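Appendix B, example 12.
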Amino acid sequence: MVKPSRRRPVVGYLCGVYRVSQRRACRVARLAVATNRYQSRRDPRTALRLRIREIAQVRVRYGYRKIRVLLNREGWQVGKKLVYRLYHEEGLALRYQARRKRRVSVNRRERIRPTGPNQVWSMDFVADQLADGRRFRALTLLDVYTRESLAIEVGQKLKGIDVVRVLQRVRRDRGVPQTLFCDNGSEFTSQVMDLWAYHHGVQIDFSRPGKPTDNAHVESFNGTFRAECLNAHWFTTLAEAEGVIERWRREYNESRPHRALGERTPHEFAHQIAASRDLMGLLTAAHSLSE
């Protein structure tokens, strides 16, 4: 079925080329005359369209859902259906690759599910290259519960000692996790990594070989990191890459809405969890004093 919006140009073409009346052209195109003459009185929402385009140009991998969250933060009282319509009318819809069909697989053991911050961290490597073709890697470290990006270490040759150095740096601010998710890369299975985990009482939970879904949280983060940062910039030097990646990491934690967190940022979610725990502690203390 062809929509009326597609039939109107046909009517105009028939009237202009064949010099027929509008009514006859409408009969040929099978379009009601009233529908052809109808002029929409809907508010064009020009200011809102311009703001949507501005956000989409700055955050090229944001879909209409995240753009709506940012608009609501700025004071625009808009619903998701309106943003969706304007987003598509402006030609901003993202193109996604078709997902592969899932194969039948055997049941795997259940991994630890965190119930609070700092219980489970997940880490992995992402590879990219500079403008001159030199390769570099980025070590990503993620808190599975709060979705906070704890660190992104950039370097051309990152080894096990570099992984330990990053963990030590994060440990000074947040302590150590109970469990660490990672794959079977040589950097994570090294002796220095095993010694650090043993010394701090951290259990390392390795993914099964060839099963990246075992470490799904950091794999999802790496996809976002590549789409919104690595693919959106052209790095000329390693220092430039470090600066841009660190700015993106801070933006991810502080301003980017996360759907799994109820469209809150990881920092907002972490602060709310901390505030609720402090309140529960005060209520427990008050109850014990009353008894």
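The CA atoms of residues 6 and 63 lie 26 Å apart. The two ends are 74 Å apart (CA to CA).
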